[in-house]
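Blinded run. Sample ID left blank on purpose so nobody reads anything into the name before looking at the predicted structure. Input follows.
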Amino acid sequence: SKNIAFIVLMAGLGQTGEDVIYTQTELLQKAGGTSGFVTAETIKTMKNVVVILKSEKDNKRAEQRINEALTRQLSVMNEEQKKAFTPVEATIKAQIPMYLSSWFRYFIAYDPRPTLEKVKVPVLVLNGENDLQVAFKENLDLIAAGLKAGGNKDFTVKSFPKLNHLFQTSQTGALSEYDKIEETIAPVVLETIADWILKRTNAK
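Blinded prediction complete.
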């Protein structure tokens, strides 16, 4: 659109929606101290959910298949493993309505690359290095690659140490920290955005 002079992309996606889910799951569970076994099983479950949603359009049938997949997964675990995985199983079952939503179905199929390749205006790409929801390195690298592939010659990529998904100064980036941080957004982020915009609009 000729009405767009520039874009400031904050914690934007370079990964596909599907890959974001897997990476996010791994990072959040690691930050929460979850065992390697439970994390691996959770990612396995989410991959099953995605496969089912991509192949089954009927929500009732999709829900049935997700529950069946969980049952099969639990059937090969020993009692100790089942006990460890039970909280995750409960969470996944509670989130099934969200998985069946039009938004989630769209998100797992979303690939930002084609859109990034069409962007010709200047772009400022920002992410916090403590972002556990949108992994900073994976996504910044892919966004830059998409913009470059499309011939964009004016894009700036910057990551901020210690900043979380909300661009707040954080210890770990865990979701549990969000409501404990008084800072709305780190001043360095606002300064970076303002300086970048002023340079590209020739504002005084």
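Unblinding after everyone has recorded impressions. The longest strand covers residues 123-128.
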